[in-house]
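S1.2 Input.
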Amino acid sequence: MFGIEIPESIAMKAHNEGGFAIWQDNVATLGVFLACRSQWRILAGFGCVVYLGLDYPGVEVVMRRLNVSDNKTMFNDIQHMEWAALAVFNAWQKPIAPG
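S1.3 Output.
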C-alpha cells in the first residue's frame, strides 16, 4: 500500500499483546506515523508540555525516505492520526518536575 512495505508484524504485535487491532489497509499509514515519532513540535513551560502538532517538513522527509508513492493520500491519513493523537496528548497536561 502506498508503495511501501510495512511488516505485518506491526499489526500482529499490537493485536497479540491485547492492545488493539489494525485493519490491513491502515498498516502502512501506522508505520509512517510511527516513523514520524521524533517529529512532534511541543511547547514546554508553565509546568506543562503542550503538543502543537507534527513538523510537516519532517514528515515529508520521512515519507520520501520510505518511498511513499501516494504522498497526498498518506499525508491526509497522517493528519487524521495527528489530530486524534493531539486530542489525547493534550487532554492531560504533563507537569514538569520543579528543578
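S1.4 Remarks. The longest helix spans residues 71-89.
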